[in-house]
Write a structure and sequence with these properties.
- The two termini are about 45 Å apart.
- The chain is elongated, with a radius of gyration of 23 Å.
- The chain has two domains: about 150 residues, Alpha/beta knot (3-Layer(aba) Sandwich); about 60 residues, Trp Operon Repressor, Chain A, CATH 1.10.1270.20.
- With about 250 residues, the chain is α/β, with parallel strands linked by helices.
- Bound molecules: ligand 9D3.
- Ligand 9D3 binds next to β5.
């Protein structure tokens, strides 16, 4: 997969992609990432990339000419038909379904803004869809671009290796993780749940799924509303809630 990023801070992208699972994917050529700096598409001595907003008000807007020129230069390095994605708080919120869709493409182009953002005409002419990474305010699109690249790269064939098989991944899909433990068996006076030491793999699997579904119900009920529950997960949640009610616990 080939990803292009239009950014005023190419080092931010290149630097972050050297580490971990994604760094290895880049080293192996499974993922290639290019950057295009709009500053290289300016023609004045000051290399001006921003200007004051029409209508007044605070902040600066990215000038349209260098921005669209950079988008077109980056697009020329991608296969035809790859989407051009603008990163902005106005976009559709990224979720795993969208990550999966992007990971299935031969490539895509990410446009990271700075200041107050892009001139609306650049969005009309040079961006196919807009993407947000969540409801909080960033100072620019680069970290959002890195989030998209990281999330997509780990789904590429061979990138994760044996760390998480597809079977393991699908077992508690759409749920939060279950709790994890490693040695020592007692740490600062706290033990490990007995079931994990039992060697009974069916019991362990059930306990993990129950922990995952119970935590999701408690902490992120929106995820259950969005993805639903398998029959088994639903049964384990009901069992969890019944046990808790029998103990006289109400919430938390
Ligand atoms: C008029 C108020 N502006 C500043 C408070 C709005 C504003 C401009 C530019 C808010 C954020 C930004 C920069 N943000 C991004 O480039 C961005 C972003 C985000 O802020 N949140 C979630 N996802 C994304 S993707 C790109």
């Amino acid at each position: 997969m080939h990803v292009e990023v239009v950014t005023l801070f190419p080092e931010m992208i290149e630097g972050a992609l050297r580490f971990g699972v994604v760094g290895r994917a880049v080293e192996r050529g499974v993922l290639t990432v290019g950057t295009e700096d709009p500053r290289a598409h300016t023609h004045d001595v000051h290399k001006t990339v921003d200007d004051r907003p029409y209508g007044g008000g605070p902040g600066m807007v990215l000038k349209p000419e260098p921005m669209l020129a950079a988008i077109r230069a980056a697009q020329a390095r991608l296969p035809g038909g790859c989407p051009r994605i603008g990163l902005s708080a106005q976009g559709e919120v990224l979720d795993q379904a969208l990550v999966r869709e992007l990971a299935g493409l031969p490539g895509f182009l990410l446009v990271a803004g700075r200041y107050e953002g892009l001139d609306e005409r650049v969005i009309e002419l040079g961006v196919d869809r807009e993407l947000s990474i969540g409801d909080y305010i960033l100072s620019g699109g680069e970290l959002a671009a890195l989030v998209v690249i990281d999330a997509a790269a780990r789904l590429l064939p061979g990138v994760l290796g044996d760390e998480r098989s597809s079977v393991e991944e699908s077992f508690a899909e759409g749920l939060l993780d279950w709790p994890h433990y490693t040695r020592p068996e007692v740490f600062e006076g706290r033990g490990v749940p007995q079931v994990l030491l039992s060697g009974n793999h069916a019991d362990i699997r059930r306990w993990r799924l129950q922990q995952a579904v119970a935590r999701t119900w408690q902490r992120r009920p929106d995820l259950i509303a969005k993805h639903g529950l398998s029959a088994e997960a639903s049964r384990l949640l009901n069992e969890f809630l019944a046990t808790r009610a029998a103990r006289g616990e109400t919430d938390e």
